[in-house]
Specification:
Shape: elongated
Largest sheet: 3 strands, parallel
Strand order of the largest sheet: 1-2-3
Helix content: 10-25%
Order of helices and strands: HHEHEE
Structural class: alpha/beta
Distance between the termini: 41 Å
Length: 112
């Protein structure tokens, strides 16, 4: 006896580059704006920094808009921020301000 094919997911993979360009996330998923863009570092990152929970170098994988990386660099940390999407380059005049202290090494690459 053969089993029927399982149902296919109703949506595909999210195109994060499209999200940052203000386009639809996927064919059947239309969410306005960038939900995680709150215009500053995430509150949990701010709280952890205030509690002294970051030390030394910081790796921010999936940095997105870079707000967490910028915040931590401004607090003296050496931050490496990595993301496969290119949010800043696709949004005119939205580049991050230079850190007051610390440094950011940004890597925007695509897997082969």
């Amino acid at each position: 006896m053969t089993q029927p094919n399982p149902p296919k997911p109703t949506h595909g993979m999210i195109d994060f580059d499209a999200v940052y360009r203000g386009q639809k996330w996927a064919d059947d998923l239309d969410v306005p704006g960038i939900p995680w863009d709150i215009g500053q570092a995430q509150p949990e990152v701010i709280a952890l920094q205030a509690a002294g929970q970051f030390s030394g170098q910081v790796l921010d994988v999936g940095c997105g808009l870079g707000d967490n990386a910028i915040f931590l660099a401004n607090h003296g940390h050496q931050v490496t921020a990595v993301d496969f999407s290119r949010p800043r380059s696709s949004r005119p005049n939205s580049g991050p301000p230079p850190p007051a202290s610390g440094s950011i090494s940004l890597s925007l690459t695509r897997p082969n």
